[in-house]
Each structure stands twice: as structure tokens, then as C-alpha cells.
Amino acid sequence: TVRADPNPPVRDAPADFPSLFQVVGGTGAPTGERLAATDPYIGACQCTIFRAPGTYTVSLTATDGIGEVASNATNVTVAPALTARFAASAMSGTAPLSIAFSAVAAGGYRAQATRTQWTFGDGTGAVGADVQHTFDAPGLYAATADLEDAGFGNASEAFLIDVTAPGSSAPVVTATIDPAVNVTAGSSVRFAAASSDPNATFRWTLSDGAGASSPGFLATLAPPPLSVGANLSVRLAVDFGSAGGSAAPVTADYNASTFFATESGGFRPQASDLGLLADGGPGSGAPPLTWIGAAVATGPGAPTARWQLPNGTETAGGSVAATFDAAGEYTVWALAADRWNDSAAIPFAVAVTAPIAPLTIRASLAPLVGVAPLPVTGRAAAAGGSGGPYTYRWSFG
């Protein structure tokens, strides 16, 4: 017997419905189950992920060990995707810094922007479509907006706020991550950073091994196993000195304990059935640096993985080897796409560091002979090592 949920709740697109059917009884081990729906994607992926709004009929046919067949069907309703526009009146400024935050929602199922939950990175929070907060002390703060609706949809964004001390002349750094919490697996996540220093360089590092050497990028992130949890840690490193400035580098961390959406029973909804697993390394080293990557794509239509190198060339297949001869910051991409217009992209940051020359010193002392008391002049010039400024110490036997 195939039991069907007669009244599945409405879910926002992309809608991944858990537990629509239950197969009970029969003789012997079941030999097969087959899904079908008025949405052809369901038959192709053998999943219950409906990616477009509408009302659909979906059925499951099961066969037991002696060839008996049973089937059942139900209807599902998919609401439009929930979208939201979150904004901050300022992303940086001198302490105390007052910022107005706002949220405007569209689509979804019974979505209300007034239910947006805000956290400000200083242990405080608020709820509402329009809220205001004052950051009293200098520092970097991760303010997050999180909106859920009645259709299991979610929209969110994180803002990196740079609050400076009065009179500070240090460059400021701001960033956003969209979405930032309760993200449906397989969704595209946009990372973007900026600085008041036009010569700043950026390096993103994610706890799942991905990263990029650029101010911004768009990535598709796969959740870790349930045993690991739903968290994701993000580190943004901004270097001013390497671009000719004198300010100290800045590092900002964003830690989301519920980055990936997880529903009751450990169910993690997916945006599509396209999967991309990739890894590569080493992440840094001196030239010539050989970087090796491997990727596997899964999903309907037998998608294949490919790689995109920093020079724009693409390599088909699941493996790649690239050699970097010059020092610099690079990004290598693992890519996948299927015939259902789904795509996935995972970046990897590669830092190629210039080799450190040996520390050398040239020195002279004059005159070397004379009548006491004898004044002498010493001159020294150092090179190599980790670079200047150098410290000199003279000793006179």
C-alpha cells in the first residue's frame, strides 16, 4: 500500500516536499519505487523538488518482492519564491554610529516584512520591517536580517559594519553575504566586500574549503553532513600593505550556526537535485605552484563537472592541474550545469607568494688606521629577508 499525504502544506519555490508518501505492507523486499508528476522534473530527478510556482499532481508507484504494484497520488501547491530587499542607511562611520535598517518583502506565502528578525553582532537584536540601532564602540559588527514566511521560505542578508574611533584615518571595510542564514542547499550565495582604500586586496575563506581572492563572488554551497551540523564560518581578510599602503591588515569573521536550513527530523531542503562536490589544493605556496583539483557532479541528465582557471580557460572533466609561475592571488572555479538550467559553482582561493631572498648585508668602516682618539664612520645596507625596515646593531671590540 502506498499512503499519500492528502494535504501537504504550501511551500515556497523552490519547494522540496518531505514525506509525501509512505510505502507499507507488501511481500518481500520492495523492488522499486517510481515518482511521476505534472512537473517533468520530478520524473527526471526522482525527487520531490518543485522549482516553479503552481499546483501539481505527484504520484508514487511501488512494486514489492513478488511483483505486486500499488500507487497513490496527491496534489501540492508551490507559492512564488520569497524575496526580500534589506538595507542599512550606513555601513561605516564614527562611534557612536546610528543606523536605520529596513526590509521589504515580495512573493512567498503570507510573508510579512514586519516579522524580520535582526541581530546586530553586539548581543542585541530587534524585530520589524524598520528598526534602528546605535553601535557605541568602535569595531567590526555582523548585523543580520532574517525573514521567514508561512511557506517554509527564507530570505536573509548579513552586513559587515565598520565602526571607527573618532579621529581614525584607517581604511574602512564593509561587506554583505546574501543569503546568510537558513539557506536552502543548492542556492546561490553572493559575497561582496568593499574598502575605502582603492588598493585593498581581498581574500575570502570558507570553512567548507571554498574561497576566493576577489572583492565579490557568487557560489553554490553544499551543506555538511547532519552529524557535523548546519554551520558555516566565513573569514574575510583585507590587506592594505601589500598594495602599497601602510595600514595594518583587517580580518573579519562571520559564523552562522544555522547557515543551512534544517527542518524537523533533520530534513534539509534542496533548491535542485544538481550536486557538485569539489576540492583542491594547495591553497598557498611559492612559485612554481602546482594546484590540483577534483570535482564530481551529480543529478538528472548526467551533468559533468568542469574547471575554470584564472586566465578564463576552461577544462572539461572532473580533474584539473594548473601551475602558477608568478606571485599573486588567484581563484580557480569548479563548475557544473544540467539541461534543466540549474548550475553550481564553487571557488577556490590560491595565494602564490614570492620566494624570500636570503638576508644579506654590506657594511663599511672608515678610516681603519689612525691616531687615537680615532673617530670612525660606519655604513651598512641590508637586503632580502622579509623586507625592510631593517634594524642595525654595531659592536666595537
Automatic annotation (TrEMBL):
The PKD domain, residue ranges: 82-170
UniProt-listed InterPro entries: Ig-like_fold, PKD/Chitinase_dom, PKD_dom, PKD_dom_sf
Any Pfam family hit: PKD_4
PROSITE patterns attached to this UniProt entry: PKD
Protein name per Swiss-Prot or TrEMBL: Surface layer protein
Origin species: mine drainage metagenome
